[in-house]
Records
---
Amino acid sequence: AIRMTQSPSSFSASTGDRVTITCRASQGISSYLAWYQQKPGKAPKLLIYAASTLQSGVPSRFSGSGSGTDFTLTISCLQSEDFATYYCQQYYSYPPFFGQGTKLEIK
Amino acid sequence: QVQLQESGPGLVKPSETLSLTCTVSGGSISSYYWSWIRQPPGKGLEWIGYIYYSGSTNYNPSLKSRVTISVDTSKNQFSLKLSSVTAADTAVYYCARGEGGAQGPMVLGYWGQGTLVTVSS
């Protein structure tokens, strides 16, 4: 099984900041990587798939990059609605493990 | 707009079978993959398994011996059964649609709101 490790697990930032979240796969997964955003009490929302393809309707301040084992999610200018928990997910092989999550909090 | 809605008991006794149904509206269940995912309180996401509208399935090996996912295309529904539950199965259970295509069945573009199932006597 290919496990996913995110860093950091949590951190604080301010509106307007540029933030980067890292996700590392235990083996190479090419670009079979998705990012999800989850707000408290809500279902996850797909942001990015294929490591860097923005899902329809997702603001362009979100971007993804990477391939192989190392990936990043960048939010270029934090908005208040972006404070949430972010999960990466590999779908290169089964089972499709998620990372443990990165909780982004307001500083 | 596709919408998914989970339904089923919120409380299940230990050793019994958890049963949930996901009703799909605003689109057909055909030609897509349909997954169940769960999230224990305060923890991360775990994929349980998926079913294709034709009936083919794929399960998480960690749960495979206890899981059955089925589909009823006439009702636009798919269902989850998890047997021999314990407190460790207490979680919010989500149903979701896999987008398919070049990215395969595991890019989950539409999710239900989730339903909390508690395992307790």
Note: The mean pLDDT of chain B is 96.
---
Amino acid sequence: DTGVSQNPRHKITKRGQNVTFRCDPISEHNRLYWYRQTLGQGPEFLTYFQNEAQLEKSRLLSDRFSAERPKGSFSTLEIQRTEQGDSAMYLCASSPGTDGDEQFFGPGTRLTVL
Amino acid sequence: GQQVMQIPQYQHVQEGEDFTTYCNSSTTLSNIQWYKQRPGGHPVFLIQLVKSGEVKKQKRLTFQFGEAKKNSSLHITATQTTDVGTYFCVPLPYSGGGADGLTFGKGTHLIIQP
């Protein structure tokens, strides 16, 4: 399967714990995006990378959130000191690298903070 | 990102009936993409509209971009149960304006009664 993959698919954690999610984009896709989606809402943009450079961050991305893409391939999203309001589906998407390209989404990681 | 108003938010139809969802923007759009998200699934790209007045068809789906590039619509003829899901219209920023992540909005939830 050459699509976008995300791990883990589900994560349950206690409030205050740190969690890390991984995204493996489609091979050779230069751009990688992170979104957050809550029930009944559309995905909300969090941040994106062009290769290894993080080029944009949403105001939604508090200082407890950090994302990396160290080698320009896979990416990680870490949430420190999780809060119940962080419970959501975290979606990763990738695109070839030109503005206006379609984005290919992964299956997401569902985070539940107890 | 640019904002659009998508209506209706929910639509119940009987299987076999037609369905239309509309997107309206107060500003002229560069391009617009449409995505579909099945219940429990992730967004999947359907199409991109670029030209003023453009009409594109995919089997039972017809996509239109307004002459002023301020509105767009998706029409499904003779709905089937496989059409169930949420349809998002997603405006794209103008080139040179920065590669924002996509702005999804709440979409239109299509519910089909057999």
Note: Chain B has a mean pLDDT of 91.
